[in-house]
Amino acid sequence: MISRKEIEKVLKSYDKKNLSLATLCSHSSLQIFYGARKEKVHTIGLVTNEAQKKLYDAFPKAKPDEFIEVEDAEDFPESELLSKNALIIPHGSIVEYTGDLLDGLKVPVLGNRLSLLWEKDRTKMFEWMKKAGLRTPLIFNPDKIDRPCVVKHLGAKGGRGYAIVHSSEEFHSKFENVKGVMVQEYLTGVRVYPHYFYSPLSKKGYRASGGHLEMMSIDRRFESNIDESYRTMMAGVPIKASFTVVGNEPLVLRESLLPEVLEMGKNTVEAADKLFGGIPGPFCLELIVDETLQFYAFEISARIVAGTNIYPEGSPYSVYSFDENMSTARRIAKEVKDAAKKDMLEKIAY
Ligand code: AMP
């Protein structure tokens, strides 16, 4: 793992008036390029083929200022990015496709690159959630399953390939290899995915750790085919529940639930401080609220999530915090500008 000192050196050498934000053209890149443009920050889109650029012809206002073609998603053009004073904005596709590449990359990553390792490893993620005092689903030894459980594979897969099992016999009939598999109690209730932004640069609002926490927005995912299963049931078509994420829809919470949601965000930030040196920037908790209004957390995304794509012009929460239309991506660009002005980039990137 490249040291913080080395990244600090890179950041010190950057021309603070000519920074750029670079990301892989996928996941939340439209929002990232659009939001950065609003803040007049230069953007670089990394594409793996010519055809990928075509998407941005359809959405010209969300097209990056420049493209850099790369062989594959793992092939970050380090020296070119360094020469353009670039910070990488990590998103779900980067976490999924780049393997351990970010570990040694000399280009600064917005946030804390260590947090992405904690996101990638489910055991570590549960340690993080526990440290934050979040209520989590029970984890079962495959030989001791006594209730409906969801079986998840290693890594961030957006729900693909998950299976429901009700007993150890059923588990073993479906899975030969138990390595890297996590068996979680199946939680029932409403899914709620709040999007937070933690800034260590000032203490002006809702205090958390040495800085403050902002509540950007909330979404709920739409997953195939569980989320349309009432139609199949009514049509008399039997299906096997699956959880492949297809898209996202907006959600606002009962106002009385917001204090707890903010508290959980704050505790997640403070646990990150203790475990691996903090989590500046955007992150999301994946929660389920049961009928007694108890929250359970089953995942943390330690970077911008695709659910924020619903709100390129802000959300029902961001309007209460900002005078401008504020998306999570625009907030990132604003933070980078602010940190550059205060000569504090090392506080928000590693
Ligand atoms: P994940 O990959 O952990 O984000 O999960 C993908 C989807 O599977 C979630 O959005 C939920 O709909 C569902 N899911 C994951 N974990 C659980 C759980 N413990 N109980 C019920 N549903 C879950």
The share of residues in extended strands comes to 15-25%
Total domain modules: 2
Task: Report the structural category.
Answer: alpha+beta
State the CATH topology of the largest domain: D-amino Acid Aminotransferase, Chain A, domain 1
CATH superfamily of the largest domain: ATP-grasp fold, B domain
pLDDT averaged over residues: 95
Just name the CATH architecture of the largest domain: 2-Layer Sandwich
What is the radius of gyration computed over CA atoms, rounded to a whole number of angstroms?
Answer: 20 Å
Taking the alpha carbons of the first and last residues, their distance comes to: 11 Å
Q: Output the CATH class name of the largest domain.
A: Alpha Beta
Strand and helix order: HEHEHEHEHHHHEEEHEEEEHEHEEH
- Count of strand segments: 14
Helix content range: 25-40%
In short:
This protein is α+β, with helices and mostly antiparallel strands. Helix content is 30%, strand content 24%.
Please give a structural write-up.
The chain is α+β, with helices and mostly antiparallel strands and 350 residues long. It folds into two domains: 291 residues, D-amino Acid Aminotransferase, Chain A, domain 1 (2-Layer Sandwich); 44 residues, no CATH class. It is 30% helix and 24% strand. It has twelve helices and 14 strands. Helix 2 links the parallel strand 1 and strand 2.
